[in-house]
Amino acid sequence: MLHGIGVSRGVARGVVYLERPFEPTICRAQCGPDQRPAQAEAYCAARAAAAAGLEALIDALQKRGAGQGDIFAAHREILMDEAMEEEILEAICQQGATAGAAVDDVYRAYAGRIARAKDPVIRERAKDLDDVRLRLLRALEGKSDPALDTRNGPCIAVAEEWLPSQIARLAAGAVAGVASLRGTATCHAAIVCQAMGLPALFGVPELLDQARAGMRAVLDAEEGTLLLEPDEAQWAGAGEREQRARQQAETARRYARQPAVTTDGCPVEICLNTGAAQLPPEIAFCDGVGLFRTEFLFMEQKHLPDEEEQYQAYSAVLRQAAGKPVILRTLDIGADKQLEYYPLPKEDNPALGMRALRLCLDRPELFRTQLRAAWRASAHGSLWMMFPMVAGLEDWRRAKAFCLSMREELVEQGCAVGDKVPLGAMIEIPSAALDADRLAGEVDFASVGTNDLCQYLFAADRTNARVAQYAPGHSPVLMRLMGHMAQAFAARAKPLSVCGELGGDARAAAVLVGLGYRKLSMSPANMPFVRQVICRAGLEELQQLARRVCVAADLQQAEEEMQRFYQAVIQPAEKGDAECTQE
Ligand code: PEP
Ligand code: MG
To answer: Rounded to 5 degrees, what are φ and ψ at 9?
Structure first.
């Protein structure tokens, strides 16, 4: 039995299909002046073919209702990027490179600069560049995408690492589930799997040594396991679990637009985590943006976005939110989140270094530009501002004072700013979590970033799949700390939400509501599952669950409690599922 991280829910049975990495044949001969126009033409034709391929993928995704077109729209932008095109054509026309060599060199150079970042979000961009590079090189060789071998039924597709477009291509065929040696819960390939409802297990250490094409396999993303060559009883048992997981997903989808209210009438706000200036359609059915990661805007640019650019982007988000609150998190870059165009000093332990708020306070000009843009945008909607990586009261007070001085500056200049802009702290450092009562006394609101909180609480690097098991989100230790914060904020009647991945994990969400959280923010794919569990439970039951989890003797007992509760509460065809239909 192999173990990995279940990054997209479900159980799947199938025959192993091994995706061989595409190895382009690149001719590195020097072209004479008479050959160069043909090479330039070949590049342009390949680019057109690659663009057509991307359009087809976006179409296929839309037909499946997967709505992950934005990742591939970003690929299209990469493909059409003028700076890269200029460099490629210059390499061909001026330096005599072949089209293949020019594409390969230019894309690799761009990707190489950002691939060293420790931050997974930034590293993802390097993978997107790789994905587009291979698409272009494949088109240059006149090759189409490899086909799944489905002669023996649906496949469990296995690779060293999946690129988002490969997943989208597989999902158009008979694929039952995907597994990989590398990858984490937050990589784009995982997001595409979730959006397509494709069970996926990433970060499986011995995968490539043990999986062979044609073997039967059972992938259980709920349990985080991959069983190769199961016996007949295991295969049949998995079939039942597969069927049950599929039914559960279908039932949960009926809750996609339901307000999350417990059976005894306690409402829980469900908000959106995003970093894209174009909000997804789910904004219409949720209670606002619970985490707007502003660094995405910075990562998409080739220069630091100036005040006007930021103002335009933030105002656009507020307009789309149409009066619903948007929690704008100020810039979370730093030692390990390097922007290519904004070099920062190297650090040995970047996750413990000069990042997020620390960096912004250290570079007032950077902070000033963003805060001015945010204050100006606040005139166009319900903006809440939140600072990442607040370690305690000192950080909070400095950030708040600086932020308010920017407001004053703008008011003196006669600029319109929102008159009610709550200021809050992100709680993701254990020192801040332990000091929650005093923080609650000073902030207008807070949101718990469980991704970083887990990494710092358990001293396990969140970007390293090998230590993922050391930072268990379901740990009773973490839940007790979550409960401590919920009580501190309730005592001061200050809003406290969860915007880390834990808030979008339906089993954990049940505990969080029981602990007192009334606002959970998550990626859209998780919303139906979280809504479902809340709609089907009573507050008292959730509180009892939270108590049992907090006093659990160990992680295993806590997980058993959560799993038992979840399964009981979501049982289909009971408690009025039939009444709950998606419009
Ligand atoms: C977190 O740390 O939980 C969080 C939401 O922020 P990010 O994942 O962007 O660090
Ligand atoms: Mg964080």
So the answer is: -60, 160
